[in-house]
Design goal:
The protein is α/β, with parallel strands linked by helices. The protein has 14 helices and eight strands. Strand 5, helix 8 and strand 6 form a beta-alpha-beta unit.
C-alpha cells in the first residue's frame, strides 16, 4: 500500500498535453498484487496518458485480473510461466503445450508471451514448433525476449508467424535490427529498455536509430516492462523517457509508433 500511495502522489512527470501511448510490455505479476490494486494500476497508466496496455504476468491470474477489471484498457497475452515453470525451462517443460492450449481455449488472448529464449535454447526445444503452430493457427503474435538468432529460428519454423520482439533485442544494434526487419516482414519490435540507446549523450536522437525508426515506422511500438515493483514506482518516468525521443521524430511517425502500430495489432479499445 505504501508503494501505491507513493506512486500516486508522484503524479505525472509533466502537465503539458501528451500523445496517447499504447504500452506493449506490462507485467502484473504476483509481487505487485498486494500493493497495486487494478484501480491503482489503471490510475498509473492514465496519469501517464497510456490508454491501452498489453499485459502478461507470472502467474497468468494477474493478467486476467486486469483484463476483467477494464477490458477497454488491458489487452491480455498468455505468458507460459507458472508454478515451477520459468524463463529458463519453460520450453522444455513436458506440460507446457497442454497448459498453453488449455488457457488459450478458455480465454481470448491477443498474444503468447512475453517469454525468453536464451542463446541456444531454440536448438533444444522441440516444443517451439508447437508453440509457433498455436500462434499461427490463432493469428496471434509471439512476444519474444531473445537475440537475433532465436528470432531467425522462429521464422524458419514458419514464415507466417508474427513476432513482437521484446526490447528490440535488448542490446541489438540498429545495423542488425534493420536487416531483420527487411528479412522478416512479420517482425515488429517494442522498445522497452531502449530509450537510453535511442538518444545519445547530448540528448539528441541517435542518427542510426532515427533512420531505422523512420524507415520502419510501421513496425515499432512503445513498452515499459514493469517486471519489478520499482518500475511501477517510476512508471510515468519510463513512459516520458519514450516521449522524449518521440518528440524528435516527424509527428506522423511519432504517433504511429506511440499508438497506431500496437492498435493495429491488438485493437484500439474502441
Amino acid at each position: 500500500m505504501a508503494l501505491a500511495l507513493a506512486v500516486i502522489a508522484a503524479g505525472p512527470a509533466t502537465a503539458e498535453p501528451r500523445m496517447a501511448i499504447f504500452d506493449t510490455h506490462v507485467h502484473y505479476s504476483r509481487a505487485a498484487w498486494a500493493g497495486l490494486t487494478p484501480t491503482v494500476v489503471r490510475g498509473l497508466l492514465s496519469d501517464a496518458s497510456v490508454t491501452r496496455a498489453l499485459v502478461s504476468s507470472t502467474p497468468d491470474d494477474g493478467t486476467l485480473r486486469l483484463r476483467d477489471f477494464d477490458p477497454s484498457m488491458f489487452v491480455p497475452e498468455l505468458r507460459p510461466y507458472h508454478g515451477q515453470v520459468h524463463s529458463a525451462n519453460w520450453h522444455n517443460d513436458k506440460g507446457i503445450i497442454a497448459y498453453l492450449e488449455s488457457r488459450l481455449a478458455a480465454n481470448t488472448y491477443k498474444g503468447i508471451g512475453e517469454f525468453h529464449l536464451y542463446p541456444g535454447a531454440e536448438k533444444l526445444a522441440p516444443s517451439l514448433n508447437k508453440v509457433v503452430a498455436l500462434a499461427v493457427a490463432r493469428d496471434i503474435p509471439l512476444h519474444v525476449h531473445a537475440g537475433a538468432e532465436p528470432v531467425r529460428k522462429l521464422f524458419e519454423l514458419d514464415p507466417n508467424l508474427t513476432v513482437l520482439w521484446a526490447h528490440a533485442g535488448m542490446s541489438t544494434l540498429p545495423d542488425v535490427i534493420g536487416p531483420m526487419m527487411e528479412a522478416y516482414p512479420r517482425l515488429s519490435a517494442e522498445l522497452s529498455f531502449r530509450a537510453e540507446d535511442i538518444t545519445d549523450a547530448k540528448g539528441d536522437i541517435d542518427p542510426a536509430w532515427r533512420s531505422l525508426l523512420i524507415r520502419y515506422k510501421d513496425r515499432f511500438m512503445i513498452g515499459s516492462d514493469t517486471f519489478e515493483n520499482e518500475r511501477w514506482a517510476s512508471y510515468s518516468d519510463l513512459i516520458e523517457s519514450h516521449r522524449f525521443w518521440l518528440r524528435m521524430l516527424p509527428p506522423d511517425v511519432a504517433r504511429t509508433i506511440a499508438f497506431d502500430n500496437a492498435a493495429r495489432m491488438f485493437g484500439d479499445g474502441g
